[in-house]
């Protein structure tokens, strides 16, 4: 029972930690609410921006342009998402810069406009460093004397960011809003408006307010809707894993029932003597109920203590094992994160302990009933 409870607490903590970690990584570079127009881009977005900024709980409302691009450096190329942001207003991405600096906010119309910051994995993939230049190829080409040709522009890498989320680190390039608009000849059009809120839990409420306040052509989505399938899969996996691991506790319960039944069989004579000297059925039942509850309580509390202690130090333990064994348990390009987070949920731990104790109590009822129904004359016949 102790092993089952410990395993269940550790696994639930890891599943909770993975879901929380991935959610934080996604929202670290993504908006809580996103507003887009009827097409790929739209103009006259300033009025929508003013309405969005006036909504409650909105901390930042920022226009952006997002498009696909092909990044090239020397003989290496990689596909990525090119995102133009409002450099002067954006305060989220600057926190993740691990090398170099963020995009310059001065002299936007001159040499600083064609600067980019890229993810650490994309920088490694392209073999670029701060100060190098990369060529960005636009899929929307122009017309030249020799026919249609894609647009290309050199950008200087001024910073490298580390979001901790592999999909962003390997496939996102950030530059100024004006640079993307010039590269694609969009004029003043943008892809959409991002809303960053005081709390991510208010996303659905603010998204509904935005739908009510903006024209019917506005397409409003919140982060829960955008990543609904992903987080629903995580929840289902966590539920299935919890049910499977509860079977370990169930096996321990059956073992305890078998042990108590064997105790009843071995102590038939003692039980009969107690009943002949006046012990009642209820007193015999209480004795075996107490014995079963002591066993289940000790196993549950021992397992809970071990599970909490292991969960609190799991990340360090796994890192030490990886260092000693020279292996990697979680690869960032497969599992989105490259470490094993464990976040304990007090409610889940209380539920596990409570269910374990209840199951232990139920398991002692049958052996206690068997002990109380031992006939004294039958047990002492050959004594």
Low-confidence stretches: none
The portion of residues forming beta strands comes to 15-25%
The SSE string, one letter per element, is HEHEEEEHEEHEHEHEHHHHHHHH
How are strands sequenced across the largest beta sheet?
Answer: 2-3-8-5-7-6
Terminus-to-terminus distance:
37 Å
Helical fraction equals 40-55%
- Find the structural class using helix and strand composition: alpha+beta
Question: Residue-averaged pLDDT, rounded?
Answer: 80
Record field, number of beta strands: 10
| Radius of gyration of CA atoms, rounded to a whole number | 32 Å
Major β-sheet, in short?
6 strands, mixed, barrel
Number of helices: 14
User: How many domain regions?
Assistant: 2
Given the C-alpha coordinates, what overall shape results?
elongated
Overall description:
The protein has 383 residues and is α+β, with helices and mostly antiparallel strands. The chain folds into 2 domains: 2-20 and 230-379, no CATH class; 38-217, no CATH class. Helix content is 52%, strand content 21%. It is built from 14 helices and 10 strands. α10 (281-312) runs antiparallel to α13. The mean pLDDT is 80.
Write a brief structural summary.
This protein is of the alpha+beta class and about 375 residues long. It has helices at about 1-30, 45-55, 120-125, 165-170, 175-185, 205-215, 225, 230-265, 270-275, 280-310, 315-325, 330-335, 345-370, 375-380; strands spanning about 35, 60-75, 75-85, 95-100, 115-120, 135-145, 145-160, 170-175, 190-195, 220.
